[in-house]
Amino acid sequence: MARCSFVMRRRNCWRLLALLAPCVLGVPTLAAAGERAVFRSQMPDGRVAYADGPAAGAVRSDRLLVEPHPGDPAQALAAQRALEANRARLLQQGRARALKLAELDRGIDVAQQELWVAQSAQTDGQTVVEGDRQGRRFAPSYWQRQQFLAQAVARARLQLDALRAERAALQ
Prior knowledge:
Structural class: alpha+beta
Shape: elongated
Low-confidence stretches: 27-33
Number of domains: 2
Strand content: 5-15%
Strand order of the largest sheet: 2-1-3
Radius of gyration: 35 Å
């Protein structure tokens, strides 16, 4: 790739200046349009061109965003204050979200422990002890105990699933 001569670089600088001058000077047409994209295209012979779209046959094209600045200082100050207020609001929301996530993590840990305890109690409750049989059949108290322990496991699992779902919704 050929190096740009001093004249070419100077011409490219003037092109860039001519293109960006309305933004710097605060021309109302550009300021009202919002953010504008300008393309910097590098041609195969080393020239650099700035235009509203990528140049045909360019080796490389980069999209540059040109941010308009309000011409009125009061308007610029108001925009800056709005940005600062928005930033403060976003930081506040981020801190609140982080606190909620930490609280949910603690709740998930507790719910997981409760589920393990309930599952362990259910496993231990399946052991037949004296008084659980009436002859060859299990007594109603055995089945009531099994039902109660299964319900405790189901409640613990539902609570854990609900906490996990809430945490997933925050991420």
